[in-house]
Amino acid sequence: MSSVSFHKKRIEECLRKNIQINEREAQIEAEYILRFALKKPSSFFISNQKTNIDKIQEEFISSILKKRIKREPLAYIFNEWDFYGETFYLDKNSLIPRQDTELIIDLVIKQFDKESKLNILDLGTGSGVIGITLSKFYPNSIITISDISSKALNVANKNIKKHNVTNIRSLESDWFDNFKEKELFDLILTNPPYISKNDVHLNNLELGYEPSNALVAANDGFADIFKIIDTAPKFLNSEGLLMIEHGHTQGHKVKNYFQQKSFDNIKQHRDINQKIRVTSASKIKV
Ligand SMILES: C[S@@+](CC[C@H](N)C(=O)[O-])C[C@H]1O[C@@H](n2cnc3c(N)ncnc32)[C@H](O)[C@@H]1O
Known about the structure:
The chain is of the alpha/beta class and 286 residues long. It contains 10 helices and 11 strands. The structure holds S-adenosylmethionine (SAM).
């Protein structure tokens, strides 16, 4: 039997040697792996560096490392990942929620108070993180989550159960195709696929585990964004808001496209690295 600190070092070395991540990344991953394998919160590791890890736990850690060395992301190995401080069920049928996407939640919370009675749509919901997080913040609102992928929706539906939210419904749809014509939302939020098929980031082996239809869009990554901007006005209330996450180099084109359509009050929002990652706009008052 060996101690927590011994295993932490061992995990870090194994990761650095096999998947070429830097020292800081290896430390972070080692902490995640230990927390998950020992089922302990981070606070446990502050005062328990010398605690021994038993044989079963050692074997469990080795099985995690075997998968990680093949570049499988931790989120899929663990079958869970955190978003906005909550843990969501996850498998390879849906995108791993990114911290970047938390910006959308921050923006909504900044604009609408907790008592608001909104009709909210999370379009291309994947694991359901945006819609489910907002369904908790806005108990008086009604949330719809939708996705073209029934497998992704299965993941989202598991998360609806896990988080015990009832003000939410899910709908399988190719963007707006299966929505009723008179169905109007106050707020449509989306993190659509926006990576160009020629983007070198797609060579990243970890990305190969994620569903490609959650990542890649035609027309240099703009096809889905443009389609959503084209169609959303039909499904927004007067002055209803559309908020789109996009790549940090896409802001200019997205803004231009919004300007050509039935939107005004166009705003661009920066992430913690000061990059424009979300563009929002209101449907022109009718
Ligand atoms: C970038 S992922 C975002 C997932 C989730 N909202 C998140 O932020 O983690 C894009 C999602 O859009 C869905 N999608 C792709 N094409 C679609 C379409 N034509 N209609 C509806 N959803 C689509 C994918 O299945 C995927 O779940």
